Amino acid sequence: MAKNHIYFLLLSLAIFIPSLHANTLESDEFWQEREKEYDKYWQHREKVAETDNEEAYSSDPYDVSGNLTSSVSELIVGKDTRRNLKGRLGKGKCTVTNPIDRCWRCDPNWAKDRQKLASCVQGFGRNTVGGKGGPFYVVTDSSDSELVNLKPGTLRHAVTRDGPLWITFGRSMFIRLQQELIVSSNKTIDGRGVDIYIADGAGITIQFVKNVIIHGVKIFNIHAGNGGMIRDSEAHYGLRTRSDGDGISVFGSSNVWIDHVSMRKCQDGLIDVIYGSTAVTISNSHFTDHNEVMLFGASDSHTQDKIMQITLAFNHFGKRLVQRMPRCRWGFIHVVNNDYTHWEMYAIGGSKGPTIICEGNRFIAPPNIHAKQITKRDYSPESVWSNWQWRSINDEYMNGAYFVESGPKLSDRPFSKQDMISARPGRYVGRLTRYAGSIKCIVGTPC
């Protein structure tokens, strides 16, 4: 019996200790260092981004999230209850499992009309166009040896060009970024048709820009960069401080869509969305092997994040994840039809009163009897967090999982009539997320 108690204590410590290492972005020292690099150029970009973010903000977030749930309901159930999930385009069988994928995946000519992808995004990032309308840029060189005098054909050269670009890859490649990859506005990174690995180096930074799509890449083993002189556009380069080790960092930006990415093992977060970013959709992605998965809102003092609006849809939160799927401050987060098959501490957490609407997700709790609760509130007594709007609508709970709701019930929420309430879609999540992560696409056939 004593051995059992000792084993339980060690297991609890193994789970708890990682949580003591806070995300880099939550430390005052990080922000003090980051402000040092704000020359007049970056100060101007910040002002422009603030205007863009305000324009991207939706004054009726319930309506946006309701449109997405309506689309899912139509795909699964529709007016004809015999309707299945088979696509009608392409030769042979093609299974489309959610409304975003239905837009493009079963078209055998997807490679001839790559920019059609930009019309497929839903949720808060629904207006993201990336590099649509711009020319194609084919990355042919996997190196990243130059950070200022950039080498044509490299990914860093591509993402720092002026104007919209649709970036593809001439072959499968492994890219090790020497320092953070700073992406300019109106860019699409499209990894379909090849295997693209961004790993064993720094991550991707989306800072004070708009209209960025990242699709079909694998990102893992990301480390903090030491900083230095780094180019961020054709006309500008400057001194950057140490990067934080996020896989993807969305910083003061709007209209961002991250779709069909596979991510694991980054030094800091897998995806962080902070500093007044809004109009973001993260969809169809697969996450494994990480402690603090997603941070939405960097600090309790950064009230800019009140305009943050993020959709998490059709993602699979898989093996060896610990917590923060996501962890939210401020803002409005719509968590719809995600598959939570693993966590060690909790799945969804937050502070500073974010609105979190969970619909049609599947939550499978871990064996640990002390980690069955899906939710976690930080730094506030129940008398405060009981007023936060955290609702669970037709989620499926398994293995003892449970969601602690708060705030007023949404009996009269202004969602569209054909929403997920009547469809009870939690049971369909396995199908909806079947192709989460980077998928194998072969030119000339449906993906």
Characterization of the model:
The chain is of the alpha/beta class. 17% of the residues lie in helices and 27% in strands. The protein has helices at residues 2-16, 28-35, 40-56, 61-76, 99-102, 155-159, 382-385, 420-423, 429-432, and strands spanning 136-139, 165-169, 173-175, 181-182, 187-190, 196-199, 204-207, 210-215, 218-222, 228-231, 237-240, 248-251, 254-259, 262-266, 271-274, 278-283, 286-288, 290-292, 294-296, 309-313, 316-317, 321-323, 327-329, 332-336, 339-340, 348-351, 355-359, 362-364, 375-377, 390-393, 396-398. The strands form 5 sheets. Strands 1-2-5-8-13-16-20-24-27-30 form a 10-stranded parallel β-sheet. The longest helix is centred in the N-terminal third of the chain and has 17 residues, at 40-56. Its cofactor is Ca(2+). It catalyses: Eliminative cleavage of (1->4)-alpha-D-galacturonan to give oligosaccharides with 4-deoxy-alpha-D-galact-4-enuronosyl groups at their non-reducing ends. InterPro entries: AmbAllergen, Pec_lyase, Pec_lyase_N, Pectin_lyas_fold, Pectin_lyase_fold/virulence, PEL. Residues 1-22 form the signal peptide.
